[in-house]
Amino acid sequence: MKTEMTPATAKPLAPIPAREEDRLATLQRYELLDTPAEAAFDQITRLAAKLLKVPVALISLVDRDRQWFKSRVGLPVQETPREHAFCAHALDSDALLVVGDARQDERFADNPLVTGDPNIRFYAGAPLRTADGLALGTICVIDDQPRPALTPEEEEALRDLSAMTMAHIEARRAVGYLHPVTSLSNRFRFLADADALADDPATVPETAVVIDAAASQQYAELTRVLGQVCADAFEIDCARRIAACLPDHTRLYHLSPARFAFILLSGGDGDLADTLDRVSSAIRSPFQYQGVPIATSAGIGFVHRSDIAEESVELLRAATSAAHQSLETQKPWCAYDEEQDRAAHRAFLLLRSLTEAMDGQDQLHMAYQPKVDLRTDRCIGAEALLRWTHPELGPISPAEFVPLAERTALVRPLTEWVIGAVLTQVAHWHRRGIALPVSINISMLDLGSGDFADRVEALLDRHDVQADWIDFEVTESALMTDRAEVDRQLRSLRRLGIAVEIDDFGTGQSALSYLKDIPATAVKIDQRFIRSIADERSDQIMVRSTIDLAHDLGYLVIAEGVETDEAYDWLRLHGCDFGQGYLISRPLAPAAFEDWLAAGAFRPAAMPV
Fold first, then answer.
1. Nearest 5°: CA angle at 494, between 489 and 500?
2. Residue spans of beta strands (DSSP E) within 479-532
3. Parts of the chain with a pLDDT under 70
4. What pLDDT does 197 receive?
5. What is the pLDDT of residue 237?
């Protein structure tokens, strides 16, 4: 134990406890300093003031250079210097510290808290001691009048209040407020602190910042390849790096795997930008594990409380949305964007509604766009196109909701819904003598599953539909995703007797020579090459080369997006086999498709000039 002297007063300061560094480290681990007020602690201080009949009661935590009040009754300030703290004198003893008249005690007579506000005369404090004997601070009562020694009943009451305070501190830690890997406060603590700050009228409106130190798939891959020990080390290192960049007394939270957060209470946009730049630079440096550098993507997002009128869970969601935008755009950090957030909210609403739509009877339906033989002008089939009319949002484009479904487990039931609806319609048409094959679009995720062809075969049996009554359209990019599994599934479909078309051909990354390996029957040239085919020489060269090469390899060629007489005639002249587009017909409901066929289908002679 050692004693220090202040030059100004030459009075002895409080003794420094023998295990001071351990005590300070323990105080930090309890995550109490610089946290918002909590009702349970405030109830204890109010009870202390009432039981001991004093105007001031405090739960004081003694930090390295200050005492900070977790709860206070009757005292306006949040902290005072440690050198002035009566509580610092109570740290190294189990006994109560009682000062009957501070002006008569040489330790405190010249203390600014005695000679000035709050004019302390009487003080009584009980240490807040952990199970291993380290004192975090005290619960104390103060009066501006001298008082006699505490009665035995009052001493017992103060000790009981100390025990109650420590019991709540331990319970607070045990109920799930700390992350098990980093021992930082977790998401529940973040939300509780943010709520408390929002309810405090004296608090400067805060800014919430969320840091994704790695994209979710990167963290999962890190764990899978190098193990959980490496992933834990990564998170601990990220926490250390981020904490080193934050302003003093700023709490860092560990929300979830590789996701951290903090709350800034003051400072202008320049201060915020400087902090975010430091954090971004720190977490983008490669992480070293056993000599191997590991680099990850990172995203940082922030939102001002003034931009979010709702509760703190919404504040956290908005900051997380901004961090996700930072990850996607690879910007160092992003501010919350209400328009982007509305789009994300709409996406979530659509995904949630899509399940209901598949279970209902009146939201999802199929439209059928005719395909014609460019040599004979005869209808040779149709493409089935999914349509969704949301009860509140109205028509939803498949270009919007299908990619969303492909990111989730909804893609499989959605594909099965579409195939089932088309097979029902095809069976109905064959009973009525309409024997035209219908094309169905399938997702790359469908082809990546090992049982897709088996499930299709079961659906064909269930609906009593022959395999050559349908064919599947699959995008070129899908074929590049998992080559081996895609090939297996396509060959299985071909063995069933189902034709396969490569949709949007020419928009992916594969070379035309890749055609020789694809077990398909036709290629479908993307409409962006067709719409200006009559005028754009570059489009003409690409389409003519594709037609010739596909034919040489034994594929049929279909052009989509045929919208003008000139395009129709050019394609027919250069040997394209089939076409579809608005010139021929827009997508039609089943009954309208039947009427279109009954009226003579597509008749070039009847086309408007």
1. 85
2. 499-505, 522-525
3. 1-12, 174-176, 266-270, 309, 476-482, 506-517, 603-609
4. 84
5. 93
Residue with tokens 């992003």, as numbered in its chain: 334
Residues 6 or more apart whose CB falls under 8 angstroms from that of 541 comprise none
d(CA 401, CA 387): 10
Q: Look at the block and give the residue holding tokens 């021929």.
A: 584
Specify the pTM.
0.60
Other beta carbons within 10 Å of 359? 11
Strand intervals (E) in 331-469? 334-335, 364-373, 379-390, 394-396, 438-441
593 touches 580 (CB < 8 A): no
d(CA 56, CA 166): 20
Evaluate whether 472 touches 447 at the Cβ level (below 8 Å). Answer: no
Cα of 597 vs its chain's centroid, Å:
49
| Strand locations in 249-333 (E) | 252-256, 259-264, 287-289, 292-294, 299-304
Contact 555, 548 (CB under 8 A): no
The pLDDT tens digits of the residues spanning 87-122 come to 999 998 889 999 999 999 999 999 999 999 999 999
Q: Write the CB contacts of 108 (distance below 8 Å, at least 6 apart in sequence).
A: 86, 99, 102, 114, 120, 123
Strand pairing category for 252-256 and 259-264: antiparallel
- Record the tokens describing residue 434, joined without a space: 């309409």
DSSP for 54-85, please give it: -SEEEEEEE-SSEEEEEEEES---SEEEGGG-
CA-CA distance, 346 to 28, in Å (whole number)? 42
Residue with tokens 């339906």: 365
Query: How high is the pLDDT of residue 10?
Result: 38
Query: How distant, in Å, are the alpha carbons of 252, 489, 501, 522 from that of 504?
Result: 48, 19, 10, 11
d(CA 205, CA 272): 13
Asked if residue 7 has a cis previous peptide bond (ω within 30° of 0), the answer is: no
Q: Are 206 and 264 in contact (CB under 8 A)?
A: yes
User: Are 253 and 262 within 8 A, CB to CB?
Assistant: yes
pLDDT in tens, 71-88: 999 999 999 999 999 999
Residue 340, CA atoms < 13 Å, CB-side half-sphere: 17
The alpha carbon torsion through 441, 447, 451, 454 (nearest 10 deg) reads 40
Task: Provide the pairing of β-strand 207-212 with 135-143.
Answer: unpaired
Core vs surface per residue 597-607: b (16+ CB within 10 A) or e:
beeeebeeeee
